[in-house]
Amino acid sequence: MYFEEDYLPKPDRRGVLYIGIRSGETRWYEEKWEGLETEDNKDIGKYEGDIVDGFPTGYGTLTLPDGSKYVGILRSGNMDGQGTTTFPNESRIVGEYNYGKIWNGTQYDKDGNIEQKFVNGKEIGIEIQKPNKDIYDYSTKDVDSIIKKYFPTKKSKYQGDLENGVPHGKGEFTWSDGSKEIGEYKDGNEWNTRYYDKDGNFTYKYVNGTFYNKEGTIILKSENNRLHQRPKIEKKVVNGEWIKQ
C-alpha cells in the first residue's frame, strides 16, 4: 500500500539531483552539467525533493527538458505512488504510478475534461468516463482546535475522480499557499492521502480514513472524525469550472 511508512523511508535530506549522462553513463548526479552538451554528456531531467541514498525517494518534483513536470511520490528515482504529470500543453495525468508508468489514473485536457483513464496500466476509452468535468473550488471550515491547527481556512482546488459531485477515487487538492494533499478519497472525504506543505515537507496523512500527524500519532479515528463533517458543496459553473457558491 502506497501510504505505509515502510514504503516511504525517512529522507536523508531534501535537495536537488540531476538525471544525466556523463561519459555515456546515465544516473543521478549531484552537480548540473555545465559543459558542452553531447549525446554522452548532458542532463535529461532535474529533481527537487526528498533524497534517500542518493536517489529521489519520497515527495518531490521532476522536471524534464520538454517542460513536462511530475509532482508526487518517487521511489529509487522512479515515479512510484500518487502523483500528477503536467505537460507543456497544460494537459495532465493524475493518479497512481508504478515504477515510472501511470497505473491507475485519469488524463485531462487543459480545460479539465477527461480524455482517458488508466486501469492496471492499461488505457480505457473515454466512453466509460463520467463526469466529463471534475474541478471545483471550496474553502475548508474551522470546526475545532484540530481543524484550526491542521486546516487553516484557505482556498483550494481539487482535480481528480468524482462520484455524485464529490471527490471519490484518486485525486489531488492544491491550496492557495502551495500546499498539496494527494491520494485516495472516498465519498468526498480523505481516505488514504498524504499532505505536504508548500516546501514539500510531509505534515500529516490519512490511512483508511483515520487522521495521523507526521509522528504517526492518531489524531482522530475515522468513526469519530469531525473533519469529515463538511457542508454540502453547492456549485455553479464559472468559466468552465465548478465553483462553490
Topology (SSEs and partners):
Elements: E1 13-22, E2 25-29, E3 41-52, E4 55-63, E5 69-75, E6 78-86, E7 92-98, E8 101-108, E9 114-119, E10 122-124, E11 135-139, H1 145-150, E12 155-163, E13 166-175, E14 180-186, E15 189-196, E16 202-207, E17 210-213, E18 218-220, E19 235-238, E20 241-244
Parallel strand pairs: 11-20
Antiparallel strand pairs: 1-2, 1-3, 3-4, 4-5, 5-6, 6-7, 7-8, 8-9, 9-10, 11-12, 12-13, 13-14, 14-15, 15-16, 16-17, 17-18, 19-20
Task: Describe the structure in your own words.
A hairpin with a 5-residue loop joins β15 and β16. The chain is mostly beta strands and 245 residues long. It has two domains: 1-129, Histone H3 K4-specific methyltransferase SET7/9 N-terminal domain; 130-245, no CATH class. The strands form two sheets. The chain has a ten-stranded antiparallel beta sheet with strand order 2-1-3-4-5-6-7-8-9-10, with no helix packed on it. Strands 18-17-16-15-14-13-12-11-20-19 form a ten-stranded mixed beta sheet, with no helix packed on it. The chain has one helix at residues 145-150; strands at residues 13-22, 25-29, 41-52, 55-63, 69-75, 78-86, 92-98, 101-108, 114-119, 122-124, 135-139, 155-163, 166-175, 180-186, 189-196, 202-207, 210-213, 218-220, 235-238, 241-244. 30% of the residues are buried. Mean pLDDT is 77; it is low at 1-6, 126-144 and 224-245. The protein is built from one helix and 20 strands. The protein is globular and about 55 Å long.
Short description:
By secondary structure, this protein is mostly beta strands.
